Known about the structure:
3 helices, seven-stranded mixed sheet, about 150 residues, about 40% strand, elongated
Amino acid sequence: MSLASEVLFAFGTNIVAESVLFADAVTTNLLGPTGDFRKRESTDKIANSGEPEGDLVLEVDGAIAANGGFLCHYNPPYSDIYMETAEIYRRKGYGSFLVQELKRISYESGKRPGARCNPNNFTSQKTLERAGFRHSGFLLAGNVRS
């Protein structure tokens, strides 16, 4: 356990896991579903429910099935991969393929990919695992007594 976690548990209350953290563990070779993995264009219509719109998309039959990207503005040399799959394309391998490709591009840009997701979002956790990520910890929050 890290020193920060020990302090939090020793002096904290109302401790919760805000996110499950993932580290890259396996290079996958998932076959791409029928579609076009490409940079997002300004005219692309993206179904979005809260994630930032990604710079990269997976287009299937003229529709955006999934989109994502990675953030590099904090915690160098790591990148924080994010993605979203449109509801009608979920549970068909599109998200895992997109995450695999985002990992590849992250490495190509000199970054080490990581990811996080809500502890209750088991579908996203499985998507990240299929793309080669493994649980590496939790982002904890709580109230610390002074």
